[in-house]
Structure of Guanylate kinase:
Amino acid sequence: MTRQGLLLVLSGPSGVGKGTVKSAMVKQKIFSFEYSVSMTTRKPRPGEVDGKDYYFVSEDRFQEAIANNELLEYNSYVGNHYGTPLAPVKQMLKEGKDVLLEIDVNGARQVRKLMPDGVFIFLTPPDLHELKHRIVTRGTDSDQVIAMRMKQARKEILMMQDYDYAVVNDTIANAVDHIKSIVEAEHVRVPRVIDDYRNMVEED
Ligand SMILES: Nc1nc2c(ncn2[C@@H]2O[C@H](COP(=O)(O)OP(=O)(O)O)[C@@H](O)[C@H]2O)c(=O)[nH]1
Ligand SMILES: Nc1ncnc2c1ncn2[C@@H]1O[C@H](COP(=O)(O)OP(=O)(O)O)[C@@H](O)[C@H]1O
Protein backbone atom coordinates (compact mmCIF):
# COMPACT_ATOMS: atom_id res chain seq x y z
CA MET A 1 0.00 0.00 0.00
CA THR A 2 1.32 3.47 -0.86
CA ARG A 3 2.09 5.56 2.20
CA GLN A 4 0.24 8.89 2.29
CA GLY A 5 2.30 11.89 1.23
CA LEU A 6 3.16 14.64 3.69
CA LEU A 7 1.04 17.76 3.78
CA LEU A 8 3.54 20.63 4.05
CA VAL A 9 2.06 23.96 5.09
CA LEU A 10 4.31 26.96 4.52
CA SER A 11 2.92 30.09 6.10
CA GLY A 12 3.96 33.35 7.72
CA PRO A 13 3.29 37.07 7.43
CA SER A 14 2.68 38.71 4.09
CA GLY A 15 5.87 39.88 2.43
CA VAL A 16 8.13 37.51 4.37
CA GLY A 17 8.95 35.65 1.17
CA LYS A 18 6.60 32.65 1.13
CA GLY A 19 5.99 32.92 -2.61
CA THR A 20 9.68 33.49 -3.33
CA VAL A 21 10.80 30.54 -1.20
CA LYS A 22 8.13 28.30 -2.74
CA SER A 23 9.25 29.27 -6.25
CA ALA A 24 12.89 28.58 -5.34
CA MET A 25 11.91 25.15 -4.03
CA VAL A 26 9.96 24.39 -7.19
CA LYS A 27 12.79 25.58 -9.45
CA GLN A 28 15.62 23.88 -7.61
CA LYS A 29 13.70 20.61 -7.35
CA ILE A 30 15.50 20.04 -4.03
CA PHE A 31 13.10 17.28 -3.20
CA SER A 32 10.02 15.98 -4.88
CA PHE A 33 6.71 17.59 -4.00
CA GLU A 34 3.61 18.93 -5.69
CA TYR A 35 2.22 22.34 -4.88
CA SER A 36 -1.38 23.26 -4.49
CA VAL A 37 -2.63 26.03 -6.80
CA SER A 38 -4.96 28.36 -4.90
CA MET A 39 -8.10 30.04 -6.13
CA THR A 40 -8.26 33.82 -5.76
CA THR A 41 -10.45 36.79 -6.65
CA ARG A 42 -7.32 38.98 -6.81
CA LYS A 43 -6.39 40.31 -10.26
CA PRO A 44 -3.30 38.74 -11.83
CA ARG A 45 -0.02 40.65 -11.46
CA PRO A 46 2.13 41.05 -14.56
CA GLY A 47 3.70 37.70 -15.39
CA GLU A 48 1.31 35.61 -13.31
CA VAL A 49 -0.24 32.69 -15.14
CA ASP A 50 -3.78 31.39 -14.56
CA GLY A 51 -3.69 27.77 -13.36
CA LYS A 52 -0.03 28.00 -12.39
CA ASP A 53 0.29 30.90 -9.92
CA TYR A 54 -3.39 30.94 -9.01
CA TYR A 55 -6.77 30.12 -10.48
CA PHE A 56 -8.01 33.67 -11.00
CA VAL A 57 -11.79 33.61 -10.57
CA SER A 58 -14.76 35.94 -10.15
CA GLU A 59 -16.40 36.66 -6.80
CA ASP A 60 -19.41 34.53 -7.89
CA ARG A 61 -17.24 31.54 -8.75
CA PHE A 62 -15.43 31.83 -5.41
CA GLN A 63 -18.72 31.93 -3.48
CA GLU A 64 -19.91 28.89 -5.44
CA ALA A 65 -16.73 27.00 -4.47
CA ILE A 66 -17.37 27.80 -0.78
CA ALA A 67 -21.03 26.73 -1.04
CA ASN A 68 -20.05 23.44 -2.72
CA ASN A 69 -17.40 22.67 -0.06
CA GLU A 70 -14.73 22.64 -2.77
CA LEU A 71 -12.19 24.42 -0.55
CA LEU A 72 -10.04 22.93 2.20
CA GLU A 73 -9.68 26.44 3.67
CA TYR A 74 -10.20 30.00 2.56
CA ASN A 75 -9.53 33.49 3.77
CA SER A 76 -10.05 37.12 2.85
CA TYR A 77 -6.91 39.16 2.72
CA VAL A 78 -6.65 42.88 1.99
CA GLY A 79 -9.91 42.87 0.08
CA ASN A 80 -9.52 39.63 -1.90
CA HIS A 81 -10.41 35.99 -1.29
CA TYR A 82 -7.96 33.09 -1.41
CA GLY A 83 -8.67 29.39 -0.99
CA THR A 84 -7.17 25.92 -1.43
CA PRO A 85 -9.09 23.53 -3.69
CA LEU A 86 -9.54 20.34 -1.64
CA ALA A 87 -9.90 17.58 -4.26
CA PRO A 88 -6.42 17.84 -5.84
CA VAL A 89 -4.75 17.97 -2.42
CA LYS A 90 -6.53 14.82 -1.24
CA GLN A 91 -5.76 13.02 -4.48
CA MET A 92 -2.04 13.87 -4.45
CA LEU A 93 -1.66 12.85 -0.79
CA LYS A 94 -3.41 9.55 -1.55
CA GLU A 95 -0.97 8.93 -4.39
CA GLY A 96 1.87 9.28 -1.86
CA LYS A 97 3.02 12.68 -3.10
CA ASP A 98 4.09 15.38 -0.66
CA VAL A 99 1.93 18.46 -1.17
CA LEU A 100 3.01 22.02 -0.38
CA LEU A 101 0.45 24.67 0.57
CA GLU A 102 1.70 28.26 0.63
CA ILE A 103 -1.05 30.06 2.50
CA ASP A 104 -1.63 32.84 5.00
CA VAL A 105 -1.77 32.21 8.75
CA ASN A 106 -5.58 32.17 9.01
CA GLY A 107 -5.78 29.51 6.33
CA ALA A 108 -3.06 27.50 8.06
CA ARG A 109 -5.06 27.55 11.28
CA GLN A 110 -8.07 26.06 9.48
CA VAL A 111 -5.92 23.35 7.91
CA ARG A 112 -4.39 22.48 11.29
CA LYS A 113 -7.88 21.68 12.61
CA LEU A 114 -8.82 19.53 9.63
CA MET A 115 -5.46 17.89 8.91
CA PRO A 116 -3.48 17.85 12.16
CA ASP A 117 -0.93 15.43 10.70
CA GLY A 118 0.38 18.17 8.41
CA VAL A 119 3.82 19.67 8.88
CA PHE A 120 3.35 23.34 9.74
CA ILE A 121 6.30 25.58 8.90
CA PHE A 122 6.32 29.26 9.86
CA LEU A 123 8.54 31.51 7.77
CA THR A 124 9.75 34.54 9.74
CA PRO A 125 11.48 37.73 8.64
CA PRO A 126 14.90 38.46 10.17
CA ASP A 127 13.19 41.59 11.64
CA LEU A 128 10.26 43.95 10.96
CA HIS A 129 12.38 46.60 9.16
CA GLU A 130 13.47 44.01 6.66
CA LEU A 131 9.87 42.83 6.25
CA LYS A 132 8.70 46.35 5.38
CA HIS A 133 11.65 46.82 3.06
CA ARG A 134 10.69 43.66 1.16
CA ILE A 135 7.06 44.67 0.79
CA VAL A 136 8.05 48.17 -0.37
CA THR A 137 10.70 46.97 -2.85
CA ARG A 138 8.34 44.39 -4.32
CA GLY A 139 6.46 47.47 -5.53
CA THR A 140 3.07 45.82 -5.90
CA ASP A 141 1.19 47.64 -3.14
CA SER A 142 0.05 51.19 -2.42
CA ASP A 143 1.21 52.94 0.78
CA GLN A 144 -2.18 52.27 2.32
CA VAL A 145 -2.02 48.53 1.56
CA ILE A 146 1.58 48.37 2.85
CA ALA A 147 0.44 49.91 6.15
CA MET A 148 -2.37 47.33 6.37
CA ARG A 149 0.01 44.46 5.60
CA MET A 150 2.50 45.63 8.29
CA LYS A 151 -0.25 45.95 10.92
CA GLN A 152 -1.43 42.46 10.03
CA ALA A 153 2.15 41.11 10.09
CA ARG A 154 2.68 42.12 13.74
CA LYS A 155 -0.35 40.05 14.75
CA GLU A 156 0.59 37.21 12.45
CA ILE A 157 4.11 36.74 13.82
CA LEU A 158 2.62 35.86 17.20
CA MET A 159 0.64 33.06 15.57
CA MET A 160 3.91 31.13 15.30
CA GLN A 161 2.97 29.31 18.49
CA ASP A 162 0.62 27.00 16.56
CA TYR A 163 3.40 25.77 14.24
CA ASP A 164 5.84 22.87 14.31
CA TYR A 165 8.86 24.71 12.90
CA ALA A 166 10.11 28.30 12.55
CA VAL A 167 12.38 29.05 9.61
CA VAL A 168 14.07 32.45 9.25
CA ASN A 169 14.04 33.75 5.69
CA ASP A 170 17.34 35.62 5.92
CA THR A 171 18.57 34.34 2.59
CA ILE A 172 16.46 32.26 0.25
CA ALA A 173 19.17 29.59 0.13
CA ASN A 174 19.17 29.23 3.93
CA ALA A 175 15.40 29.06 4.16
CA VAL A 176 15.21 26.43 1.41
CA ASP A 177 17.96 24.39 3.10
CA HIS A 178 16.15 24.43 6.43
CA ILE A 179 12.87 23.40 4.86
CA LYS A 180 14.62 20.57 3.08
CA SER A 181 16.06 19.32 6.40
CA ILE A 182 12.64 19.49 8.04
CA VAL A 183 11.02 17.48 5.27
CA GLU A 184 13.78 14.87 5.33
CA ALA A 185 13.37 14.48 9.09
CA GLU A 186 9.58 14.26 8.84
CA HIS A 187 9.91 11.44 6.31
CA VAL A 188 11.69 9.22 8.81
CA ARG A 189 9.65 9.93 11.93
CA VAL A 190 9.06 6.61 13.64
CA PRO A 191 5.23 6.73 13.67
CA ARG A 192 5.38 7.20 9.92
CA VAL A 193 7.78 4.37 9.11
CA ILE A 194 7.24 1.78 11.83
CA ASP A 195 4.72 -0.27 9.83
CA ASP A 196 7.36 -0.94 7.17
CA TYR A 197 9.64 -2.39 9.82
CA ARG A 198 6.83 -4.45 11.39
CA ASN A 199 6.23 -5.97 7.96
CA MET A 200 9.95 -6.59 7.51
CA VAL A 201 10.20 -8.41 10.83
CA GLU A 202 7.06 -10.44 10.23
CA GLU A 203 8.13 -11.48 6.73
CA ASP A 204 11.57 -12.57 7.85
N1 LIG B 1 -5.73 31.12 3.23
C1 LIG B 1 -5.11 31.19 2.06
N2 LIG B 1 -4.19 32.14 1.83
C2 LIG B 1 -3.58 32.16 0.65
C3 LIG B 1 -3.86 31.21 -0.36
N3 LIG B 1 -3.10 31.50 -1.45
C4 LIG B 1 -2.36 32.57 -1.11
N4 LIG B 1 -2.64 32.97 0.15
C5 LIG B 1 -2.04 34.06 0.92
O1 LIG B 1 -2.69 35.27 0.63
C6 LIG B 1 -1.82 36.36 0.90
C7 LIG B 1 -1.80 37.33 -0.25
O2 LIG B 1 -1.29 36.70 -1.41
P1 LIG B 1 -0.85 37.54 -2.67
O3 LIG B 1 -1.93 38.52 -3.02
O4 LIG B 1 -0.39 36.60 -3.73
O5 LIG B 1 0.33 38.41 -2.13
P2 LIG B 1 1.75 37.99 -1.58
O6 LIG B 1 1.73 36.54 -1.17
O7 LIG B 1 1.91 38.91 -0.46
O8 LIG B 1 2.64 38.18 -2.76
C8 LIG B 1 -0.45 35.73 1.17
O9 LIG B 1 -0.23 35.72 2.56
C9 LIG B 1 -0.61 34.33 0.60
O10 LIG B 1 0.26 33.41 1.25
C10 LIG B 1 -4.84 30.22 -0.09
O11 LIG B 1 -5.18 29.35 -0.88
N5 LIG B 1 -5.42 30.26 1.13
N1 LIG C 1 15.48 36.01 1.59
C1 LIG C 1 15.12 37.15 0.96
N2 LIG C 1 16.00 38.18 0.92
C2 LIG C 1 15.65 39.35 0.33
N3 LIG C 1 14.47 39.59 -0.26
C3 LIG C 1 13.56 38.59 -0.26
C4 LIG C 1 13.83 37.32 0.35
N4 LIG C 1 12.72 36.54 0.21
C5 LIG C 1 11.82 37.28 -0.47
N5 LIG C 1 12.31 38.51 -0.75
C6 LIG C 1 11.61 39.62 -1.44
O1 LIG C 1 10.59 40.08 -0.54
C7 LIG C 1 9.41 40.45 -1.27
C8 LIG C 1 8.20 39.68 -0.75
O2 LIG C 1 8.32 38.30 -1.09
P1 LIG C 1 7.05 37.39 -1.45
O3 LIG C 1 7.57 36.05 -1.82
O4 LIG C 1 6.14 38.09 -2.40
O5 LIG C 1 6.34 37.32 0.02
P2 LIG C 1 4.99 36.62 0.50
O6 LIG C 1 4.61 35.58 -0.52
O7 LIG C 1 5.32 36.01 1.83
O8 LIG C 1 3.97 37.70 0.65
C9 LIG C 1 9.73 40.19 -2.74
O9 LIG C 1 10.15 41.40 -3.35
C10 LIG C 1 10.89 39.20 -2.70
O10 LIG C 1 11.71 39.29 -3.84
Observations:
- The first helix runs from residue 18 to 28.
- The longest strand covers residues 71-77.
